[in-house]
Amino acid sequence: MIRKWWHDKVAYQIYPKSFYDSNGDGIGDLPGIISKLDYLKDLGIDIIWLSPCYRSPLADQGYDISDYYDIDPRFGTMEDMDRLIAEAKKRNMYILMDLVVNHCSDEHEWFQKACEDPDGEYGNFFYLRDKKEGELPTNWRSYFGGPVWEDLPGTNKQYLHVFHKKQPDLNWENPRLREEVYKNINWWLDKGLAGFRIDAIINIKKALPFKNYAPDREDGLTSMHNMLAEAKGIGEFLGEMRARTFQKYDAFSVGEVFNEKEDEIPDFIGDNGYFSSMFDFNETVFGSSQNGWYDAKPITPDDYKRCCFETQQKIGSTGFVSNIIENHDEPRGVSRYIPQGDCCPESKKMLAALNFMLRGLPFIYQGQELGMENVPFQSIEEIDDISTKDEYQVALDAGCTPEEALAAVSRLSRDNARTPMQWSAEENAGFTTGTPWLKPNPNYTAINAASQETDPDSVRSFYKKLIALRKNPEYKETIVYGTLEPVWEDRHNLMAYYRKGDKTLLVVGNYQRASQTITLDVPYKKILLNNYKDAPKSSQAIELQGYQVLILEM
Ligand code: GLC
Ligand code: CA
Question: Is 301:513 a contact under the CB 8 Å cutoff?
Fold first, then answer.
């Protein structure tokens, strides 16, 4: 594997709308992010991925872009963006933007022009089909519910949107569209951006010609996955994009890639892959159900372990996967992966260490370093996210009572991760002096950055130690490039693996409340990290306390 500048880094995702509000309008913004760069530097962060802050109607919170060359005034100005890049650079930090090019906003100029003249140049930037009464061009179900077809205003045509109707899909088959995308990427890279997180990219290749697939729910529609499984040739687009953009800049790119096949991994993230890295969503894929969120499987500690190891084995040393516990589309990892009732500082630290020490690039989502938890939603009215609202309806349609539907979508709602960052115990979690766009999690008085800063035993302090360990010159080679070998794989509620490089490290977590004992072949040399104060009594027969995690040098 060719070594790259970003391999030994630690990345952090910011959801700008909820990070820090500098001007009291209740919406997080770029000056707010700039004012918190030192907080991130102190944590040990190198790479910062910003969820979209381009000009947007915010129908899907910025994942619907109306101008790829502008910053939405609610987030700040282009000067703020330039200042953010410069201030990050001063601190040896790198900024990634979100590249959202499967679709744009219906308020983008291209779409407006397509409406004016659907047979003209911009009509071909989208997927348009003639409207037929009583019949849709295909029976695909949008990710956010309902059919993927919508009337093109002022015309006798319909357009395709695999996400929300305010997110028309861009036609990647059209070379003119691709040129526009590459021009924009290069424009940002010329500004000094370090790279991109690449949104929903697996959707850019459609199986042509369009056709229906077998309906899989009462609505007569079919999951997008059925079409995507038949779509061949995405590599031509992705390879071209890499060659025309990222490659020339040695930029970092991380793809939001779901359901890749094992033999495609080298193409995606091998030495000459389309992307530098891709996220591991194995737990999410494992837990999901074709029927909707209400039917999602809970993920047990043994499932969690198996999912992590499956990915690790699949990737091996072919490339560098990006490991996450959560992101802006997922519930809080501590609420999802720690058995109910057991969420506490110890279990949060255990989960952190088990995930962070996997081979690959660790991404921390804002607030994860504080152990932020899911929100106790009291009513569907408290939820802003379009996806959650749709899934609530899906649950009701499937026969759930309103209480059951709310409970089901609360577990997975994207708003769990989108409430304001909990900076302090002050009003509104110290996020804003105004009215926050989304209510903070009421637990902010207990869980917040300020109270954890000076506490050496806080979750945040533990994350700092984990990051420092990854950067420690003595262990860096092993942690970054060493192989990963699972141990005691069949032990219930125990997750353990070796990382082997020029050193051998053992990472072991007791994924339950009751203690359990492991026996090492040889005594360990040194404890590098322990979420309990006391060292084990023996260095060979080790009794692990509830949710204890150890990183041992062997
Ligand atoms: C990705 C984003 C998600 C967004 C969707 C459509 O999955 O992470 O937030 O809703 O794409 O852009
Ligand atoms: Ca603001």
Answer: no
Q: Report the catalytic residues.
A: 199, 256
Note the ligand closest to the C-alpha atom of 167.
1
What is the CATH class of 109-160?
Answer: alpha beta
Give domain 481-553's CATH number out of 2.30.110.10, 3.40.50.150, 2.60.40.1180, 2.40.320.10. 2.60.40.1180
The alpha carbon of 179 and the centre of ligand 2 are apart by a number of angstroms equal to 34
Ligand 1 atom at shortest distance from the alpha carbon of 329: 9
Q: Is the pLDDT at 361 greater than 80, yes or no?
A: yes
pLDDT digits (tens, 9 = 90+) for 454-477: 999 999 999 999 999 999 999 999
Mean pLDDT of the chain: 97
Query: Which tokens go with 539?
Result: 């260095």
Residues with Cβ within 8 Å of 90's Cβ and at least 6 positions away in sequence, in order, are: none
Ligand 1 centroid to 480 CA: how many Å?
29
Please state the domain extents for the chain. 11-102+175-461, 109-160, 481-553
| Reported confidence tier of residue 261, pLDDT bands at 50, 70, 90 | confident
Query: 3-state DSSP call for residue 52?
Result: coil
Pairing of strands 549-553, 504-510: antiparallel
Nearest ligand to the C-alpha of residue 365?
1
d(CA 389, CA 387): 5
For ligand 1, atom 6: residue with the closest CA: 63
